């Protein structure tokens, strides 16, 4: 058997990958976070498959399900929201599967920051404006950030900053980014990107915190800060340039 970790995407059920959907449709056991995975995706699960909501399970209990399925020779789809590469808690599950000698693979999903970028209608990397994107969060109640990964350090180059899991700490975000970005730097917050209740806030580093408070946002939102969010008059990319030498 194999444990297939599948990124379900940012929320819209049709943003799961074709590969992820096929795995879901053939699964014998499906484990999912009930509060984060769309019900429409669960409707794709075979009628005779075992479905397990993991939102109230701890890691040991989740691994216990893996072990039971392995003993029964049943393939498992472990459905995570967003993409597996960011803040998904996949690493600790994979570590235990390797210790147990259980096969696994990872199927990527559309990450929340990509859905937020699409909702804003912007490219995050604009020629000669921003060519780097920093994906990060703040160190508060969850696991600590490495000592050097502060917003002050990460923002020193002026890269486009994307913050996950930080909406409730928006005042801290502004305070830590202000020295490197200034109050007039474009900023945006996208709540529930791609979902029916999606909400977009646009502004600057100087006013985005108040907008977040006025909207009552405390979770499920991505904060973006950087000049490319409102870039204008920038040069065209080299990719399609008329001056680019192309091979026949």
UniProtKB/TrEMBL annotation:
Keywords: Cobalamin biosynthesis, Methyltransferase, S-adenosyl-L-methionine, Transferase. It comes from the Bacteria. Residues 2-208 form the Tetrapyrrole methylase domain. PANTHER family: COBALT-PRECORRIN-4 C(11)-METHYLTRANSFERASE, SIROHEME SYNTHASE-RELATED. Belongs to the precorrin methyltransferase family. NCBIfam families: cobM_cbiF. This is Precorrin-4 C(11)-methyltransferase. It comes from Nocardioides phosphati.
